[in-house]
Amino acid sequence: MVSAPPKILTNTWVKAAWDEFVAIADNPDQIKLGKAQFYYDNGSMRIENMTTGFSHGRSHFLLASAISLYGTLQDLNFISLDNGSFRKPGERECQPDLAFYFGNDLPEIPPGNSPVSVDLYGPPTLAIEISASTLSDDMGQKRLLYERLDVDEYWIVDVANAKIIALSISEGGSRQVQTSVVLPDLQIAVIEEALRRIQSENDGEVNRWLLKQFA
C-alpha cells in the first residue's frame, strides 16, 4: 500500500527540524506541490507556491536583463542565478527569484543542481525577491533571513506598484538605499521607471531606454 504524501502547509512559516526541511526540499515531487520555493530560518520552514503570472514574469525578466546589462556596461565580473538555492547546512536556506555574485574573485561553483553551499562559496552578493503576493513576508521574516545569511544587498520588488525596496546589509542589519552599493552608481529609481515602462512598452523599447540611462 502506497502511503499518502504528507500534508504540507504552504505560504506560511511552520516550525520544523532541519532534517525534516531537507527531506522535503530535496524531494519536492513526493509532496506533489508542483513548482515551489523553499526557505528555512530560525527553526522554521516556508514553502511557497511559485508565482507564474504575467506581471511577475515580466518583472522577473526585466530585472535580470537590466542588471546583466548594467553589469556588462560597467565591466563588472558577475554570475547570475535564476531561482537558485543557497544552503547553510543546519541553519538556513533560501531560494530567491534572482541572485548575483559580483567581484573580481568570483566563486568557482561546480556544475550541478544541488543547493549552493554558503559555507563553501559564500552567500550571493545581491538577492532579489519579486513580490506579487508575498510582500509582507519578503519585508519581514525573509529580510531577517537574508540579514543572517549576510548577503550584501537585498531587493524587494513590489510588482503591483513598480517599487523596489533596496536594502544594504552589514553587521547583521539592513538599511534602505536609493543607490545600489553592489552595482556602483546605479540609481534604484531607474529600475523602478523601467518596471513602469514594461506596462506599456515592449522589451526593445525598454532596453533602448535603459541603454541611454546607463551610458
UniProtKB/TrEMBL annotation:
<dbReference type="InterPro" id="IPR012296">
    <property type="entry name" value="Nuclease_put_TT1808"/>
</dbReference>
<dbReference type="Pfam" id="PF05685">
    <property type="entry name" value="Uma2"/>
</dbReference>
<dbReference type="InterPro" id="IPR008538">
    <property type="entry name" value="Uma2"/>
</dbReference>
<feature type="domain" description="Putative restriction endonuclease">
    <location>
        <begin position="35"/>
        <end position="196"/>
    </location>
</feature>
<protein>
    <recommendedName>
        <fullName>Putative restriction endonuclease domain-containing protein</fullName>
    </recommendedName>
</protein>
<dbReference type="InterPro" id="IPR011335">
    <property type="entry name" value="Restrct_endonuc-II-like"/>
</dbReference>
